[in-house]
Amino acid sequence: VDFLAAGLDEVRNQTDVVVDSVTRPSMSSTGFVTFKTLTPVTVTTSAPLTYKQNPMEVTVAPEPRDFVWQNVQIDQDIGSSRAFVANVLLGLGVLLWSIPLTLIQAWAKVE
């Protein structure tokens, strides 16, 4: 039984490696630059880099401890759509939670 379980774990691990290599790009579109003073940071984040309309987004990065490093490679469009879905589900949760709560409050005040 242990041999079979170990074999299944190995197959699962190999499958995860293959799926990750197919679904995640090998190179990320995200880059980080470190400046030693605030002047280049201000110039870089405020100056247009090209004449094209929004070729890339330049922002000041949060602290390294605030990153989920496994999510750095995720495309910005995918991250935005995930955030939108999470916000919609959160809004639905608030609505679905507030309706019974309001009914309970109203029922408690009647008595």
Blueprint of the fold:
Blueprint: H1 2-23, H2 38-46, H3 76-110
Q: State the assembly state of the protein chains.
A: single chain
Helix content: 55-70%
From the alpha carbons, calculate the radius of gyration and give it in angstroms.
Answer: 24 Å
Briefly note the structural class of the backbone: mainly alpha
Characterize the largest beta sheet: strand count, sense, and whether it forms a barrel: none
Mean pLDDT: 80
By DSSP, the count of extended strands is 0
Q: Helices and strands, in N-to-C order?
A: HHH
Compute the number of helices: 3
Tell me the distance between the termini. 62 Å
Unreliably modeled segments = none
Principal-axis shape? flat
Question: What portion of residues belong to β-strands?
Answer: under 5%
Summarize the structure.
This protein is mainly α and 111 residues long. It contains three helices and no strands.
Name some characteristics of this structure.
111 residues; mainly alpha; 3 helices
